Amino acid sequence: MCGFVAVSTIVFAVYGEWVSSVSALSIFLLMLVPSLLKGQYKIYLPFELDIAIVAFIFSSLFLGSLQNFYEKFPLWDGVLHFQSGLLLGLVGFVVVYLMNAKKTEKFSLSPGFVSLFAVCFSLALSVVWEIYEYAMDSLFGYTMQETGLPDTMSDLMVN
Q1: What sign does the dihedral 59-64-68-69 (CA atoms) show?
Q2: Average pLDDT value for the chain
Q3: 135 within 8 A of 153, measured Cβ to Cβ
């Protein structure tokens, strides 16, 4: 996926599509962030989660925004919100798991609490994203929330 985005960056530049080229380059750099964080901060990130994050970035930003999949496929937004809900839940689980797995501190959490935290983490960040969409629409005239409240509510339910 990273290679495809890198090649697309060059192709966009060759054809003089500078905005798309810069956007693709930004997406490519964003896709490298999980691996860079793992190396720089020695954070354990399961390979599957790393791939899921990169796939989500590719699907939402490259395919969704740059290739207009949001307009071409009516269910694209819902599928990505569902994926983001799962992904954020996994990230929340990994965060608590890593805190719980530290041997230097006496810190023990029940599996029920870890699960509850993962769900709440996912829901909280989903709400933050919907607030971001609303702010972008209000301040800059974007159309991230095409139908307003119905879009927000369906996104939150899918998340």
Answers
A1: positive
A2: 88
A3: no
Contact 142, 136 (CB under 8 A): yes
Distance between CA 144 and CA 129 in Å, rounded?
11
Please report how the helices 2-14 and 18-41 are oriented relative to each other, as an axis angle in degrees rounded to 10. Answer: 150
Q: Considering the chain, what percentage of its residues have pLDDT values greater than 70?
A: 96
Q: What is the pLDDT of residues 28-72, one digit of tens each?
A: 999 998 888 888 877 777 888 889 999 999 999 899 988 999 889
What six digits make up the tokens of 31? 């896709």
CB-count burial class (<10 Å; 0-12, 13-18, 19+) for 62: buried
Closest by CA to 79, choosing from 62, 64, 94, is 64
Whether the CB-CB separation of 35 and 50 falls below 8 Å is answered with: yes
Within 10 angstroms of residue 68's Cβ, the number of other Cβ atoms is 11
Model confidence, pTM: 0.82
